[in-house]
Amino acid sequence: QVQLVESGGGLVQAGGSLRLSCVHSGRTFSTSTMNWFRQAPGKDREFVANIGPRNTTYYKDSVKSRFTISRDNAKNTVYLQMNSLKPEDTAVYYCNVGATAYWGQGTQVTVSS
Description:
This protein is mostly beta strands. Helix content is 0%, strand content 49%.
């Protein structure tokens, strides 16, 4: 059983930055692809970014050049650095272990205009 715990969300003005963290409780973190998703009110959950075991990354087009995903295998943690935030980035952000049903509880990000 894997538990994921996100943190780092909050309220920020447009143009600001936040760094989200997600701690993975299991022994398989270093060999797992880790995803970030988000869900805005009234919308479906959508993919944001992922990072593979060898640090290959992939981003949703609208966050490229603004968001950076990274991982620290020594800390079993994946990060999402979010810069130049926009009101449309407002959502609950979730981390997920790739191709599994393991999800965190989510962390709220609110960007004011």
